[in-house]
Structure formats: structure tokens, C-alpha cells
Amino acid sequence: MKPMIFSLPGNEGLADALAGRLGGERGKAIVRRFPDGESYARIESSVEGRAVILCCTLDRPDEKVLPLLFLAATAKDLGAARAGLVAPYLAYMRQDRRFEPGEGITSVYFARLLSGTVDWLVTVDPHLHRRASLSEIYPIPTRVIHAAPLISRWIRENIASPVLIGPDSESAQWVSEIAAVAGAPYLVLEKIRRGDREVEVSVPETDRWRSYTPVLVDDIISTGRTMIETVGHLRRAGLAKPVCIGIHAIFADRAEEDLREAGASRVVTCNTIPHPSNGIDLGDLLAEEVRNVEGAA
Amino acid sequence: MKPMIFSLPGNEGLADALAGRLGGERGKAIVRRFPDGESYARIESSVEGRAVILCCTLDRPDEKVLPLLFLAATAKDLGAARAGLVAPYLAYMRQDRRFEPGEGITSVYFARLLSGTVDWLVTVDPHLHRRASLSEIYPIPTRVIHAAPLISRWIRENIASPVLIGPDSESAQWVSEIAAVAGAPYLVLEKIRRGDREVEVSVPETDRWRSYTPVLVDDIISTGRTMIETVGHLRRAGLAKPVCIGIHAIFADRAEEDLREAGASRVVTCNTIPHPSNGIDLGDLLAEEVRNVEGAA
């Protein structure tokens, strides 16, 4: 039987895209909030014996978690064979160890909560810093999609003379890979320490890059501070207005406006979090991994 | 060793009250939200080997649950002997069965979530309709406090000539019990059906009650619709402006203003949810039950 695909509020586009690509059926569910702030969940389609796929990207996760877990639990109560989760943006990946004494390792607690109700997870480029893979914290089957190849393709197809920018030496590897696939050069900014507190950021071989369009790439644009600073360095060095690309469009506070005001000519993101800046569609890759994980289930 | 008591944001008064009564220590914790909407939890006091008590009333529960569960998990990660929860208002008690096909039984799912991390639960008058006790849905030890005796005492001490009002026949038993302990009379409104759709509510023996102060009591004042209607019936019958008492001060939307505009002379609640209307203090009862459940742990 074909899987039945449900969207949590705001994820209708993702659910439609997956249903189309997987030949799945769109399930009908009601998820709403009562006046007292509690959530209500009801599944109107018959899910008995069927594979259920829930679509819910997890930016601003705190208020989304109960409705999501309630819908998954309801599906299983109603006899669904299993309930998988497609969360193109996965929350709580940053706190993956105790940086200060007494801190909660929320990535582990969050993984435990989701895994208690959901049977598998498909996501896009989770913020894995100190972990080699999601399976270190998620006991359920997980599949991870990498957006880099599609970002490279977007750059190749949309920017005439791009130069990829690495804001610091840490980013060199990731930026060089995207640049290679895009067939574009890249440069890494240099931090020069002047005295105890002053750090100057310089753009090497400035003259060489004046006719190029700088392209900045980051995984998450949240407050956008690092990217905004980098845009400033490039502009002060006399380079063209850069294009800023993010995988996950969190855009906390005024991040997008600030980025444009700093001098970004364009802000483009992947469609892991619905946002007007979404310009790179990951639907095919998501559908492929859902097919894989469902096939293995 | 004395228990260590932590407050989630907004529950500082409850934590202080319990610490004073139990001779417990107030623990230091940081719970805050990042700009991207994720929560951060850190315990600054040493909890190793100690009983931890978390104070978190659960009105508007969806955004409170992750910080609460994270703090409980952190305490246990840091070696706490156990982590109990004092939630004077317990959320998700209404959806205790499938009223319509396909509905999620959220009271059970919510109980499962809390019980996965928290070791015991103390609450006040949970909205138990079709369940005999909390233990039918909560696998962890639970203790329930009943506010009725303190409401009766408040009425006896604050209202000169009270008459308790039952808005319908279903409420008769509960209202008669409070009235008996308050040493006050009570009356139950009558619904008279006129034709198919029209229902008239009448106040029996109106003349007898004109010099009394009507007192309305309900467990939860959420939108306050029932109470507002009842206030209207009493006013139209020519009775004095009533006093409205609730255990749990949810006050969704404009409930409190609407209640006063309908003709309530006073709105008084127990302090299970911090609110300016709190006039009945349950601190002693809460401390007693925490002592009991901790003693049994």
C-alpha cells in the first residue's frame, strides 16, 4: 500500500511535493490549538496498516513538538504500521556536549523524545559538529541529505563569475568542495591579529577578484552575524555585492534585513524551512531518501 | 539531605513557598530561549545524590514542555537521585477518550511524555471526568490536592450571606459539598426546554435569595463561557452581583474582563496559576503532599 503523507501546519508544500514524487496519498488531519493553549490532533483518513509519513520541519521547535508527537502517537493508536518523520530542518543539534558545567545536553534529550514516538527520521544537513553521525544520538533509523551538490549547481546556473568565500580557515574544506563542483574558484579570508584585542580580516589578492561575484555559503542562517560581518569585510575590500546562500533559513530577529543592509545583493536558501528566500529545491533528494528508508522498514 | 527545589520561569513564587515550608534548598538554574527559538537549560547548583523538585505549572503547556523535560533530564544526568514535578495545574486532562473518530487521546500521550523523564507528580484538582484517578494514565507516583476545603473556608471568611450556585444539575454534588463545608445554602439553576431549540434557565425561589451574595465555583476558568452565562441568568433574575471562584486561572482571551462586564462583583482563584485574581493559597497542601510523595520515594 502507498504511504499516507500528513503535514503539520506550515508544511503543506513539503507534503504535497513528497506525495507527488512518491505516488503517496495525502492524509487528512486536523491539528489546532484550543483557546487555553493546548493542542488538538485528529486524523480523518484511515491509516490502519499503512506507512504514515509526517512532514514537520523543526525550526522554532518548542511549540511544534507536542502537536507533532501527538499526531504520530494518534497514527499509531489508529493502527498505522509505522510513523516516519521528514524534518528538513532538525532542531537541537548544537548542544551536543556540556560546554559549561551543569548544562543539559539537549541534542540527546530531544533525540530521545522524538525517537520515543517516531519510527524513522529523514533530514537535511543536520548541524553535526562533534558527532560523526546522527545515529550516535538517534536510536531510530535516520537518513541525511546533503544540499551541497544542489547549491553548487545553483551557483553554476545562476552566477556568471562566482568566487566562493570561506569566512575563516575552518570553513575552507566545505567551501572548496562546493566551489569544485560549481567549477568556481574560492578564497578564504585571513584573520590578522594586531595587538591583544584587535583582529583584522583581510581579503587576499583583492585586485584579482574585483570583477567576480562573491558567494557566501553557510549551513544555518540564524541571527546571520558571521555572514553579515563577512559581507562587511568584502565590501570594505572593494569587492562586488555578494550573494548569500544558506541551507536552513531560520532568520532570527531581523537577520534577513540586516544581511541586505550590510550589502548582500541576493539571499538564497534551500527549501528546508519555508521562506521567501527559498530558491533551491530539495524535493527530489528528500523523496529519494524517504523511499530508501521506507523500503528498508 | 534536603530536597533541592528549582523553578521553571514564572514559577519562582511556588518554588520559594515550597522551599520555606519543606526546609528545602532553592537550586539555581538557567532556562532561556536562544534567538532561533531553541531552549537552553543549565543547573548551577550541585544536585548529585539529591532529590530534585521542579516547579512548573502547566497552563499554556506546549512551549513549556521542552524546557521542563530538559531541566529534569539535566538534573538526572548530573546525578540527582530523582526529579519530581510540582505542577499545580496539569494540562491535557480533557481529551481522555476518542470523542470523534480519529482523535488523539492527548491525556495519555502527554502523561507518557512527562512520565518518561519525571519521577513523580503532585498536582491540584486535575480535570478528571471519565477517569477515576490519575494513576490510570500516569505510570509514575502521583498525588492530587483538593482545593474544595480551602474554597469553602474562603467563602465562610469572606462572604457575609453566601448562596452557592450550581449552573446545572451535573454540578449539584460538587456545589453542595462546598456549600456544606462553608455552612452556606446552595441552589441549582433549572433548564426549561421551550420548543426544539430554545432553552430557558430559571432561578428557583428567586425572592428568597435577593439578599444573598451568589457564589459561583468552577474548577477551570478558561474562556469562562459557562460562568459568564450563569452570571447573566442570576443578574436577569434580580439577584445580587455574584462572586466567581475558580481553582485554575487560565483566563483565555478576555475571559476575566468579560466575566466582570457580565456582572461579577469579584473574581477569585486559587494560586495554581499565577494571576492577579489569586486569593486562595494552596501552599500548605502542596508542601504536605510533596513531603508525602518524597517520603515514599
CATH class of the largest domain in chain A: Alpha Beta
Helix-strand makeup class of chain A: alpha/beta
The count of domains of chain A is 2
CATH architectural label of the largest domain in chain A: 3-Layer(aba) Sandwich
Task: Give the CA-based shape of chain A.
Answer: elongated
Largest interface, with Cβ-Cβ < 8 Å? Answer: A-B, 49 and 51 residues
Question: Strand tally of chain A, please?
Answer: 16
**How is the largest sheet of chain A built, in terms of strand order?**
2-1-5-6-7-8
Relative strand content of chain A? 25-35%
Largest sheet of chain A: 6 strands, parallel
Distance between the termini of chain A: 13 Å
Describe the protein's architecture and organization:
The structure is a homodimer. Chain A has about 300 residues and is an alpha/beta fold. Chain A has two domains: about 5-145 and about 280-295, Rossmann fold (3-Layer(aba) Sandwich), CATH 3.40.50; about 150-280, Rossmann fold (3-Layer(aba) Sandwich), CATH 3.40.50. Helices cover about 30% and strands about 25% of the residues of chain A. Chain A has helices spanning about 10-20, 65-75, 105-115, 150-160, 170-180, 225-235, 255-260, 285-295; strands at about 5, 25, 30-35, 40-45, 50-55, 80-85, 120-125, 140-145, 160-165, 185-190, 190-195, 200, 215-220, 245-250, 265-270, 280. A six-stranded parallel beta sheet of chain A has the order 2-1-5-6-7-8, sandwiched between helices. In chain A, helix 1 (about 10-20) links the parallel strand 1 and strand 2. In chain A, helix 4 packs across helix 5 (about 170-180). The radius of gyration of chain A is 21 Å and the shape is elongated. The two termini of chain A are about 15 Å apart. At the A-B interface, strand 4, helix 2 and helix 3 of A face strand 4, helix 2 and helix 3 of B.
